[in-house]
Amino acid sequence: MSTSTTPTGFHESTPVPGPGSREAAHRRLVAGLLQRQGAALVFLAVMAVAWIVFPGFGTTGNLRTLALQSSFLAVIALGMTLVIISGGIDLSVGSVYALGGVLAAYGSRWGFFGALLLPLAVCGLIGLVNGLLVARTAMAPFIATLATLLFARGLLLAITGEGATTYKIDNDQVFLEIGRGVLFGVGYPVYITLALFVAGGVLLRRTRFGQALFATGGSESSAVLMGLPVARTKIMVYVLSGLLAGFSGAMTAAYLQSGVTVIGVGTELDAIAAVVIGGTLLTGGAGTVIGTLFGVLLRNVIQNIINQIGTLDGNFQSVVSGAFLLVVVVVQRTLSRGRR
Amino acid sequence: MSDAALASRPQVRRGHANRLQEYGVYAAVAALVLFNLVFIPNFMSLGNFRTQLVQVAPIVIVALGMALVIGTEGIDLSVGAVMALAAALIPLYLGYGLVPALAMALTAGLVAGVCNGLLVAYVGIQPIIATLALLVGGRGLALVMAHGQLVDIHNPALLNLGSGDLLGVPISVVIAAVPAALTGLLIRRTALGRRIVAIGGNRSASALSGLPVRRVLVTVYAICGLFAALAGVLATARLGAGDPADTGILMELSAITAVVVGGTPLSGGRVRVAGTVAGALLMQLVYATLIKHNLPDSSAQMVQAAIIVVAVYVSRERSGR
Q1: What is the DSSP string of A13-43?
Q2: Chain A: residue whose CA lies nearest to B306
Q3: pTM for this prediction
Q4: Could you state one GO cellular component term attached to this entry (chain B) (predicted)?
């Protein structure tokens, strides 16, 4: 990725609260607010407008569906956030997501743990391969994960008899609860996703690993010189991304009660878009998981609104998504210029 | 026919590893052809040979534009969407005749490329994100224009582009040869070619030495968009229908693969035109070989993944990050 041509003026927004003066910190906060929390602000605004304009939007049912639908992509985007903060990218998540679903359905014949552990093991292994290729052979993340994208899709086809077999999960399986269970009217996937995001936030902000991650993404050579375990951090990040994508696939399989083979094509791009909209910079070294969560929510709310309008061609969804992504990055870019 | 290692990385490379890096892709293509000649009867039959070439033609065209973009340390994810736009526009304007329809499709590609270039060069957005927006939005726009439907084409002149012959060579192959030759000349014989490589090698140094960096970047993305639209025209002509839903799906990945397997590093500063063509041919031959040996699609994909890893491992930048 081209890090050389892009300004790195964002490293001050890494989580360490520096000992700078109070006013300076305050100014930084305000200037950075739109950049980092822009997605949250726009999300709230769009929600408010949609709530008022479309009577069908604010209903409990619709909001429930919205939250549930968002959770699957959100889990993938969480892993992508970590990878992008490390200065890399993971294109394999879409295929790994689909593979995770198929493996979960396949593994459900061995009960709950089969359905859960089989996808996690295989997808974690694919993440490990990504990490080793990126960290140990210095291969560009874009290409290394492009190869595993193909590999994971091929593996999926091999397991499912070239996509002809769709494994079902039996009705009496406890595993189905992961996708279909409901607590206080809200689906389990929503709780699981929130828990994962909290864990992700703590991992980033409160642990040695998180610090090493920001340092690696900010300036890899400096991180190496400081004696940080850069290679190990990178490998770990890709493993986490693979695990999360695989888990999201398993959750989807539980929700759909089968391992659908055709999902996940292009999902990596949705995840990247959500991460970028959430304010994480593709150059690495800065980013928040909460921004990503709002990035995913924003994407799904906009799709939901287009559905609410009803008369619009469904294909407008992607036109709007593309235009929206463009507006967000242009605004981010302008803001980051102003802050230099 | 080998591509000169171009000026920005002047160190002369020697040794086995480097020779493998330089000529590996040609050797692989030759080995694969030989293997097939021996083990698959009728492999070199004219019909099969033609089929392979016709199938690879759109990929070659897109990959050439992609090679230029990658040479500037960029990437263009929107090529598949631009193909879809071309596929949607052709049936819309075919009523006015073949030339206006082609002109509209190619203009759309050019405009899309210029937009990408402006975003990258003037707004300063990272190429991957700037072109991702068009990937997401472009196909949607194409589907909206075509009302989400596949439109049959009955114009004989256009259909001829997809299935006709010129002196015994499929027309689409002839058409693909033109951008290949032009790109080769562009890189090796023109100032623009030198500038592309220089900018990819070191953008700030290029800017400091007075190269029109932004203009060159816009030009490069415009060429890439134009080539993608041309590939969209060929794909449409071959299919005999404008199909914005499926034309060019995942083409960005095939094109990037061809470029990288052909030995052009993703870090820019080097464009291998003949290598790119060979890279596209190699991936096509690998696929055809596996299929002819009755290996299923799944194995073909996994083998392709392995080939990408090996090719990039061999040709990776030793000094790079």
Answers
A1: GSSS-----HHHHHHHHHHHHHHHHHHHHHH
A2: A147
A3: 0.83
A4: plasma membrane
**Tokens 């090493």 belong to residue:** A212
Residue B41, number of CB atoms within 10 A of its CB = 10
Chain A neighbours among B 113-142 (CB < 8 Å)? 119, 123-130, 132-141
Q: What is the pLDDT of residues A268-289, one digit of tens each?
A: 888 998 898 888 888 888 888 8
The answer for B 207-246 residues in CB contact with A (under 8 A) is none
Distance CA A119, CA B19 (A): 41
Nearest to A269 among B136, B138, B306 (CB): B136
Which segment of A248-252, B138-142, B221-225 scores lowest on mean pLDDT?
B138-142
Q: How do the domains of chain A map onto residue ranges? A: 55-339
Q: What is the DSSP letter of B12?
A: P
Q: Contact at 8 Å (CB) between A18 and A12?
A: yes
| Nearest residue of A to residue B308, measured between CA atoms | A147
Chain A contact set for B312 (CB, 8 A) = 139-140, 143-144, 147
Q: Taking CB atoms and an 8 Å limit, are A138 and B320 in contact across chains? A: yes
Domain A55-339 has CATH 1.10.3470: yes
Per-residue DSSP letter, B319: S
Burial letters A109-140, b for 16+ CB under 10 A, else e? eeeeebbbbbbbebbbebbbbbbbbbbeebbb
